[in-house]
Amino acid sequence: MLSSRGSAGTEGSPLAGRGQVSPARDHAAHNLRSGGSQPLPTFPAGTPYEEHELILAGPLGRPVDHRNVKKRHFHPLLAAAGLPRVRLYDLRHTHCTLLLGAGVPVNVVSQRLGHASAKMTLDVYANYLPDQHEDAVARYRAYVAHTK
Predict the structure, then answer these.
(1) Are residues 16 and 43 in the same domain?
(2) Backbone phi, then psi, for 91, in 5-degree steps?
(3) Which of 41, 58, 85 is the last residue of a domain?
(4) Which residue intervals of the chain are DSSP H helices?
(5) How far is CA 134 from the centre of its chain?
(6) Does the CA dihedral 36-54-103-126 come out positive or negative?
(7) pTM for this model (two decimals)
(8) Distance (Å) of CA 102 to CA 16, 112, 127
(9) Are 14 and 115 in contact (CB under 8 A)?
(10) Who is most buried in 47, 116, 125, 143, counting CB within 10 A?
């Protein structure tokens, strides 16, 4: 997770340990499946990958500077795609609203975002789901008609 100081947050992060994929975790899973125990891979400089369970990490697993990510990668990708310039954090909101709009259960979305509860997710995002009332009525009518 990127922090406001320009580095990725680690300890105490609400997302820590919640399903992010990392080379070290993949390596450990491979060792478990194969029944072996091998050391983590090393890189040309001989420095092992540092596992911090970060969403965005440098090549050696260390925190990255959010300004560098935005300047070198994110903003150029937006420009190349012809998209308006948005904050990296806006992708989190987009991800959430698309999941909720697709009917993914609120508790699942809440867990993906690292929220403390589904209530927190609903408090922030419920107003983005105006069509759900119509959908609820349609589902209710279909269910009642089917059970007659």
Answers:
(1) yes
(2) -65, -35
(3) 85
(4) 23-34, 66-69, 75-80, 88-101, 106-113, 118-125, 132-146
(5) 29
(6) positive
(7) 0.53
(8) 25, 15, 15
(9) yes
(10) 125
Q: In the structure encoding, which two tokens stand for residue 123, read together?
A: 């408090």
CA pair distance 83, 70, nearest whole angstrom: 14
Can you state the percent helix, strand and coil of the chain, rounding each to 5? 50, 5, 45
Q: Same domain for 95 and 68?
A: no
Q: For residue 104, give both structure tokens.
A: 């993914």
Residue with tokens 């922090």: 3
Q: pLDDT per position in the chain (148 positions), as tens?
A: 443 333 344 444 444 444 434 444 455 555 545 555 556 556 666 678 888 888 778 888 888 888 988 999 899 999 999 999 999 889 999 999 999 888 899 999 999 999 999 999 999 988 877 677 788 888 899 999 988 7
CA distance 15 to 1: 7
Tokens of 102: 């697709």
Domain that holds residue 136: 86-148
Long-range (24+ apart) CB contacts under 8 A made by 115-118 are 115/14, 116/14
| Residue keyed to tokens 């795609």 | 81
